[in-house]
Amino acid sequence: MGSYMQNLSSSFRSTSSWFEVYAAFSTFMMLLRTAINDLIPQPIRSFIASKLEAFFSKCQSNSQISLKINQFWDESVGERNDLFYAAHEYLPSRITRTYKSLKVGKLENHKHLELAVDGSEEVVDEFEGTKFTWMLDEGSEKESSSNKKFTFILTFNEKHRERVLDRYIPHVLKTYEAMKAEQKIVKIYSRLFDYWNESELSHPATFDTLALAPELKQAIIDDLDRFLRRKELYKKVGKPWKRGYLLYGPPGTGKSSLIAAIANYLKFDVYDLELSSVFSNSELMRAMRETTNRSIVVIEDIDCNKEVHARSKADDLPDQDSSDDEGANAKVKPGRFTLSGLLNYMDGLWSSCGEERIIIFTTNHKEKIDPALLRPGRMDMHINLSFLKGKAFRILASNYLGIEGDHPLFEQIEGLLDKIQATPAVVAEHLMRSEDPNEALEALVKFLEEICKDNPVECQLNTGLVNVA
Fold this sequence. Notes:
GO terms for molecular function: ATP binding; ATP hydrolysis activity. Keywords: ATP-binding, Hydrolase, Magnesium, Nucleotide-binding. Pfam families: AAA (PF00004), AAA_assoc (PF14363), AAA_lid_At3g28540 (PF25568). Helices cover 41% and strands 19% of the residues. A seven-stranded mixed β-sheet has the order 10-9-12-13-14-11-15, with helices on one face. It is built from 14 helices and 18 strands. The chain is an alpha/beta fold. The N and C termini lie far apart (119 Å). Strand 9 (187-192) and strand 10 form a beta hairpin.
């Protein structure tokens, strides 16, 4: 019994000693942490921590694997590797202030400074809570800059292999496509002789600057967004992925501006097709096959084209005298472009000419268009660009005069616009006559009041028609 009590007492003393050691060690660590925080600046602490993390990561190198993403998939034929270029654009967006070695520059036709990955610096990207390390291998220094072969090296833990291949790399590619679309410079193409002539679409119109009723503007945006996200639905029901719009209304109501706004919103190139320059149905098909995906085909003043008014039966008739070409029932010469050729292009050959297309027709006189062109599937949405009214006028006042919010003369101007039919082009021209907002609005009020005094009247003013209601 005495021996048992002696051992128990010894055990208590041993436990007490351990507690004393633990308390002393905890106190020491607290004092050490306080000293480190007080004496060593935060940047140095972060540097030490990163080096320790890198050291222990190397100790676990057995579980790290790397993927090489070469600039060219097949160097012998110069076949580029799209994944390399996707990473090249994607990674700079992940660069933060912690990186010490970056490339920076200003490129032609780019609005902002460009950042690029430097070969001497790792880039760490985080996706779904997992970190991935990228490194750019710039090749041998002995090679000339024109002959260098660049390679991205992606390093990650082996246990994330499936995540990398199934989700992370597709995420990089998808992000790259979105960035490329956002940075795209929209082009406009016009048909000249036998080929498309290219130039930059510099029209600044956007949906924010369009003088349209807010309800109509939102309806157009919603329809465009719905079209873009329905690729699988079009494929499921067996329809070509395209959408047709008819813009109609008096001259000066903003049809061209709306087309530019749609192109800038979607980042779609524009193909401006003048039907009078198309001499046969086969030439129309050839011109359409040369257009690209994600594009807008514009056919302006469709009501003014004689061949569209004449039916395709004329293809089987002998040549007609040129004096017979007038009128809606005119016959067209053999081999020329016909309405049936246009309908066949819209209905039957879209799938062979690409996908994600929009075709826009414009007219000043909707009633003159052949009904065959107006049905759904050819012109899916009819957009009436009418005369300027109150809410749309305020957008013009903001664009031209910089007036945000209300103005004492707005209510009077809106009341006058409700009584007459004035195009946005006419009102915009008057707003530009003075740089002083008050003077410009007072002059506009005087102009609109003079029209009301002469009621009824019709007159052509500048580029727009003004009618009294």
